[in-house]
Design goal:
Helix content: 10-25%
Distance between the termini: 36 Å
Shape: globular
Low-confidence stretches: 9-17
Length: 298
């Protein structure tokens, strides 16, 4: 465990400067992104898909019994993550605690809360999309196999055939997004879909849209960015980083599994030091590949 990082503090800073404020980080807003959140996942869960086999045929008096209902499944596996660190108020005696009682200082829970926010930020920025689970790893990217990694593996296994868009630029982004959206199966076009993209891809789309049509690409009354003449919404998400991938799917098809959708904290006093372990189990999966369309960019 590492001690608090005080390298950037100046002696007496707290007394001469303003109040301490927390670093701004990404918000944990997967529900707003249309992700299916499964809680209380204490063991691998089968995401069972029910479908029908055979086909409708003209009436005949003879029997023609087939297999009827079929079941397939994908598996959501949730694994534990953690962060260990100590908190020793004595480290701040000549800086932040110079004029305050270290036994009653309110910023102790606030400091822990900031660590929690950055815990979630690390998962959002580095794990949920391109993470690859590695139980012997030491970074956020080792905690879970993310949606982008799953998609790449399914493409390699020929379970997904990507739409060929080539590179997306600020001169072609509108047509490339249209191509992916209009390549979706009829059920997606009828039900409505989300096309996930990174903020960098969205910037290219907005610039191309403004250049082609002469006005700003603006959200609809519901706050989403509707794609012209397609029952679809273009949604930039932080967890895709700077990816050039487009992911078209129905809402709730991308699955995030956990136990309780918050960080659990275990704090143990040791003399005058708090030894803190924070934990959050998580797993990513795609429920149904049949309602997922992606392009050929990583």
């Amino acid at each position: 465990m590492a001690a608090p990082d005080l390298s950037a503090l100046s002696t007496g800073f707290f007394e001469l400067g303003g109040p301490v404020f927390g670093k701004k980080v990404l918000e944990w807003n997967l529900r707003n992104d249309g992700i299916q959140i499964r809680t209380n996942v204490k063991a691998p869960q089968k995401l069972v898909k029910m479908s029908a086999t055979g086909n409708v045929r003209p009436y005949a008096e003879a029997d023609h019994f087939g297999t009827g209902v079929a079941f397939t499944n994908r598996t959501l596996t949730v694994r534990q993550t953690k962060k260990d660190y100590p908190f020793n108020p004595e480290e701040f005696r000549n800086t932040l605690l110079a004029s305050l009682n270290p036994n009653t200082m309110d910023f102790v829970p606030e400091a822990v809360n900031q660590v929690s926010k950055e815990y979630l930020n690390d998962l959002m920025a580095n794990a949920l999309y391109l993470g690859v689970y590695n139980g012997a790893g030491t970074a956020a990217a080792d905690t879970v196999t993310g949606w982008g990694t799953i998609i790449a593996a399914e493409i390699t296994a020929t379970n997904i055939t990507p739409v060929v868009t080539g590179a997306i630029t600020n001169a072609n982004a509108v047509s490339k997004v249209d191509l992916v959206a209009k390549s979706a199966p009829l059920v997606m076009r009828q039900l409505g879909m989300v096309v996930y993209c990174s903020y960098s891809t969205f910037d290219k789309y907005a610039e191309d849209y403004r250049s082609k049509y002469g006005f700003q690409y603006v959200p609809s009354l519901t706050g989403g960015y509707r794609i012209d003449n397609v029952n679809a919404e273009l949604k930039p998400v932080a967890w895709m980083g700077t990816s050039n991938r487009l992911i078209a799917t129905i809402p709730q098809n991308l699955v995030f599994g956990t136990d309780i959708e918050q960080i659990q904290m275990h704090a143990t006093p040791h003399l005058d030091i708090l030894q803190i372990r924070q934990k959050m189990p998580l797993g990513c999966e795609i429920q149904d590949l049949g309602v997922l369309v992606v392009n050929d960019q990583a």
